Every structure is written in structure tokens, then in C-alpha cells.
């Protein structure tokens, strides 16, 4: 039987859906709890049925997480292609195809995130672990075609980009939080 290289093309989409569902389920429970705490939930029940409120909040959160994970996937793919451009001699994209089967790590991580939706910390850890395992799997698959300098360059390019991106997000969130707190007081 001939192996089809497009057979696992659906894995990124399903992985994003699974991770988005896991995070949305957890945050939906927190949002409903806060709505009840502030007394807003009772007023909403006068307008909507309980299951409609839960579904609406859950769906909106799912969409937000879906967009976030899709954006991260886009950034990751772009960074991978850019690093392959700089550090690889492959011009046909054969190396990229060799690492695509690592999508199973994210799919398994997404399934695990659904099972662990009671803890946001565990879901973040599963996502981070799936990302690291996939990256090292990808490096292992393409390492035979890269020089030592190419592998080191690829690792540091990803490391610097994601560290800078994370620091920028943290900085932005802290600035917004400080602006919000100063506006309240």
C-alpha cells in the first residue's frame, strides 16, 4: 500500500479544535461562576435559558481560543519555513514533509487537554510539552540533512523568537493591567 503524504493533513485542525475545547470548557466554568458571584447570571436567566447561556459563553470562548491557537500555528509555520530557508540546503520542501508526521504529538496533547480540562495549569503544561516534543522530533527527523551550525541556528532562532514573543505578551498584559488598575483608583 502506498503511503499518502496528505493523510495527516487534518491533524493541525483537529489539534487546534481539541485544545480550544479544553481551554474553553475550563474558562466557561469560571465565567459562569463569576457571573453568579456578581449576580449577573440571575438576570440573564430571565432572558435566556440556562443551556443557552452556557452554550453561548462556551462557543465564544472556543472561538477566541481557536483564533489564538490558529495564530500560533501560523507563526510557528512561518518561523519554521524561515529557519529552513536560512539554515537548510533543501529547496524542494522534502525536509518539511519529513517532520509533518509529528502532528500526532499535538493531536495526543489535545486529547489529553480535553481529559484534563479541570486544571488550566495542566492544560498549559500539556500544550508546552506537546510543542517541545514536536520541535525536538522535527529536529531529529531533519538533522541528517542539516549541518551542526544549521541545527544550532534553527534552535536559537526558535528560542529567541518565542522568548521575545512571550516577553512581549507578558509586557503588554502587565501594561494593560496597570492602566486598568490606575483607571479604577
Q: How would the global form be characterised? A: elongated
Kindly state the mean pLDDT as a whole number?
A: 92
Q: Briefly note the structural class of the backbone.
A: mainly alpha
Strand content: under 5%
How would you characterize the overall build of this protein?
The chain is mostly helical. The protein has 7 helices and no strands. Helix 1 packs across helix 3, helix 1 packs parallel to helix 5 and helix 5 runs antiparallel to helix 6. The longest helix has 38 residues. The chain is elongated and about 65 Å long. The mean pLDDT is 92.
Keywords:
mainly alpha, 185 residues, 7 helices, 0% strand, 82% helix
In a few lines, what is going on in this structure?
The chain is mainly α and 185 residues long. It contains 7 helices and no strands. The longest helix is centred in the middle third of the chain and has 38 residues.
Amino acid at each position: 500500500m502506498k503511503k499518502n503524504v496528505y493523510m495527516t493533513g487534518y491533524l493541525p485542525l483537529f489539534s487546534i479544535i481539541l485544545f480550544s475545547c479544553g481551554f474553553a470548557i475550563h474558562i466557561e466554568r469560571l465565567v459562569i461562576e463569576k457571573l453568579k458571584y456578581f449576580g449577573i447570571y440571575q438576570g440573564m436567566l430571565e432572558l435566556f435559558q440556562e443551556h443557552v447561556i452556557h452554550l453561548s459563553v462556551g462557543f465564544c470562548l472556543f472561538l477566541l481560543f481557536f483564533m489564538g491557537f490558529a495564530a500560533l500555528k501560523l507563526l510557528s509555520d512561518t518561523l519554521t519555513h524561515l529557519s529552513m530557508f536560512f539554515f537548510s540546503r533543501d529547496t524542494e520542501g522534502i525536509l518539511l514533509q519529513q517532520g509533518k508526521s509529528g502532528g500526532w504529538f499535538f493531536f495526543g496533547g489535545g486529547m489529553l487537554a480535553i481529559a484534563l480540562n479541570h486544571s488550566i495549569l495542566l492544560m498549559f503544561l500539556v500544550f508546552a510539552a506537546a510543542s517541545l516534543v514536536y520541535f525536538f522530533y522535527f529536529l531529529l527527523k531533519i538533522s541528517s540533512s542539516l549541518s551542526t551550525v544549521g541545527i544550532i541556528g534553527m534552535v536559537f532562532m526558535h528560542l529567541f523568537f518565542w522568548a521575545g514573543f512571550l516577553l512581549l505578551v507578558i509586557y503588554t498584559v502587565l501594561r494593560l493591567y496597570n492602566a486598568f488598575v490606575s483607571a479604577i483608583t
